[in-house]
Amino acid sequence: MKQILVTGGTGFIGRPLCRVLVAAGYRVTVLSRKPATVRDKCGPQVAALASLDEWRPDMHFDAVINLAGEPIADAAWTARRKQQLRDSRIALTGQLVAAMARAQRPPAVLLSGSAIGYYGDGGDVAFDESSPAAGDFAARLCADWEEAALAAERLGVRVCLLRTGLVLDPSGGLLGRMRLPFSLGLGARLGDGRQWMSWIAMEDYLSIVLRLLEDDGARGPFNMTAPQPVTNATFTSTLAEALHRPALLFAPAPLLRLALGERAPMLLGGQRVLPARLQAAGFRFRHGTLEAALAGLLR
Ligand SMILES: NC(=O)c1ccc[n+]([C@@H]2O[C@H](COP(=O)([O-])OP(=O)(O)OC[C@H]3O[C@@H](n4cnc5c(N)ncnc54)[C@H](OP(=O)(O)O)[C@@H]3O)[C@@H](O)[C@H]2O)c1
Questions:
Q1: Fold of 3-167+200-225+278-284
Q2: Which residues are CB-contacts of 150 (< 8 A; sequence separation ≥ 6)?
Q3: Is 105 in the pocket of ligand 1 (CB under 6 A)?
């Protein structure tokens, strides 16, 4: 049975990920600051590590999935918060690669988190994996996180970078936050609603992770997004229709800029991202359109 280490395994994506990994026959260990909560959150078969210092050189993991990071949108981006966002991803990934280097047998593969914020706000331009990183804070965070993970290649580890879009699942994330206001008929377009939202259903995200784990030829960046991104206006009306409620409101851009400061481009900007490499590899998305995805998720 293959051993796998997951960082961020207690989170919104990590919890269902642990369940599908266990179901697929992996023995899962989660690195967590609250190791006593891991069994409850991730399942009774999942073991916990409280610190990377507990990864002794004679312990072997066949694979590592690295998702840990402070939530990016939850608090204002003060200098202190920016440092926390960077340390919890880039410094932690550096420590992870150092632990791999100490291991008598490094893992075969590292799947490491990133986000489509890598591309910055692109207007209507479509981005694929060959598009360059932008220069704003969120883009630098992703690019530096990726670079820290790629250092594992020097140990002979196969590295895949998960450039993740808006992961949709009713258990949390964007959909978890939007469901209540939209259910109350308070769903609102953001600004002019023309900004792109590149989304992916949780089920597809998890299937891709399983595939990248096992596909020895897969390496480098992968856009983890469905093939049909939508604008914010379309997202708003599609979600409202799925919940059988109107969405007649809009949140004015100046108000959002005032309330969110430097984080405002995360809502008022966006990126139209295409999963070019997954499609070239023949991955078949179960949830290809937002309408069908939401119908399934909100059933
Ligand atoms: N959800 C999305 O739509 C989305 C989109 C793009 C990218 N991503 C990225 O994918 C990753 C997983 O997303 P998610 O939504 O599952 O995130 P999440 O629910 O916020 O979970 C992140 C996990 O990271 C760990 N963590 C948080 N702060 C930490 C710190 N200071 N040091 C070490 N570990 C820390 C936590 O584990 P413990 O509390 O157990 O230590 C937590 O369970 C994140 O890095 C996120 O940026 C997510």
A1: Rossmann fold (3.40.50)
A2: 159, 161
A3: no
Contact 223, 163 (CB under 8 A): yes
**Residue 167 alpha carbon, nearest atom of ligand 1:** 3
Residue type at position 121: D
Pair 35, 91: CB distance under 8 Å: no
Domain residue limits, the chain: 3-167+200-225+278-284
Distance between CA atoms of residues 290 and 230, nearest Å: 8
Distance, in Å, from the CA atom of 272 to the CA atom of 174, rounded to the nearest integer, reads: 17
Ligand 1 pocket test target in 5, 7, 10, 53 with most atoms within 8 Å of CB? 10
Locus of tokens 């075969």: 108
Per residue in 222-270, pLDDT (tens digit) is 999 999 999 999 999 999 999 999 888 888 888 888 888 888 888 899 9
With a 6 A CB cut-off, is 46 part of the ligand 1 pocket? no
Distance, in Å, from the CA atom of 285 to the CA atom of 69, rounded to the nearest integer, reads 27
- Mean pLDDT of the residues in the chain: 96
pLDDT digits (tens, 9 = 90+) for 161-187: 999 999 999 999 999 999 999 999 888
Q: How many Å apart are CA 289 and CA 282, to the nearest integer?
A: 17
pTM of the model: 0.97
Note the pLDDT of residue 295: 94
Tokens at 146, concatenated:
């990726």
